[in-house]
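Support request, please re-run this one:
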Amino acid sequence: MNPMKTIDGLDPIIFVIFGGAGDLAWRKLIPALFDLAQDRSQPAQFAIVAVDRIKLSDDALRRRLHDGVNQFSRFGKAKTAAWNQFAQHIQYQQGDFTKLQTYTALGKQCAKLEKEWRIKARRIFYMATPPSMFGEIPKYLGQAGLSRDRDWARIVIEKPIGYDLESARALNAILAASFDESQIFRIDHYLGKETVQNILAFRFANPLFEPLWNRRYIDYVTITVAETVGVEHRGGYYDHAGALRDMVQNHLMQLLCLVAMEPMVSFEADEIRNKKVDVLHAARPIHRDAVPQCAVRGQYGPGRADGKKVPGYREEVGVARDSQTETFVALKLFIDNWRWQDVPFYLRTGKCLPQQASEISIQFRAVPHQSFPPEASLGWQASRLILAIQPVEGIVLGFQAKYPGPKVQLRPVDMRFSYHESFDAPSPDAYETLLWDVMKGDATLFMRADQVEAAWQLVMPVLEAWQAASPSDFPNYAAGTWGPEDAQRLLSQGHSWPAPTELAAKCPRKGKHS
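Re-run finished. Output below.
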């Protein structure tokens, strides 16, 4: 019995991975494609062609990728029959990404597969390479004629999309020279997470909260993406990027757009992406002289996390000993439109923080008149809605309830929903969702060129101001703490950064690869 599911409704696919012998393919792409083959189906005819510089045989590559699947598949260690069936679709091609003959050879390989299958195949070109190759590979694909068929060729590009606004525009121009915008899939794995997608369902499929989703009822919004780890093995890359480029310009801006966007007319990809771009266009520009009032940066020093000593950022491998790179960013933004005028959106992200958490907190305004006497409150707080993205996915609504007893006493309580408890089906890895959408041609969860550039344009004044004036206090927060003290002063009076929800403590932790 064939352990791999197939589906006839999906076109035959040749999935080309530039950098196919590298870490991203080993850790994310191949495990996701394998899981799709076991769970969500693959076309009856498909092939994975890994292209890389090193000399490697098909069998050697398959052994390496098998190890990655065993470690990172959400199904656990691969069954022998399932892996053998999947592995026979993997091929290796050695080639230099900067030589045209690599691409002409690839074209011949694709044509050979189509001849064997006796059917035309969709060709997906995935750039799992260093960013320096993002501007090279599309040009050679165009020169080799591999991007010519707009209906059958697609290209996938990982972040970072540029280093600043100018480089992002230049990269988008290179992509556009060989590919139509409909063929380009700019991937952000955060958008593949179930709870991120559930923001749209929560807002627009339920009549309860959307009428309250505006400046009349919402006081402020916080978006937190906190990491407990440092830069780990990415010091060389990170020291030239920093938290603003690495996280804010893409991940946090995407979350901001989903929370603040207007209702869409349909679920068409461009309709949703239009609404997200509208948010960025409505964001109040940050002027260079106002950056200190709108943005805070930090860099972690030595500290303790999970009971262990943690080195400071400048002690990490690949990091300059006098590095001025930020590992923490907090921003205060406003969306100037009818829905959100004067409602602050606070964004923060950082490394070596006390707790892993990706959460959106919607803080509702307090009641206009407090009818209950002060002694009736056992810890009064305004209602708050938490959209928890990771490590455990769910939604928490905090509100006031009467404490049991003869006296009228109010206490904050939580109403909780968790994916783990409500659904038997495990959430797929984000890359599974996104690769499946690439194969189907659904661009809903992918960034369009104008969205990328609008996000860069919003943060450029902050980047320029920080580049012009080096921080004098780095490192300014200890590893294992919630960032620099200035992040608290960024908040308006009466506002606060919410502590991460205890949803994770209430629900069993998923496997290490969830």
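The longest strand covers residues 218-226. Residues 191-427+455-506 form a domain with the Dihydrodipicolinate Reductase; domain 2 fold (CATH 3.30.360.10).
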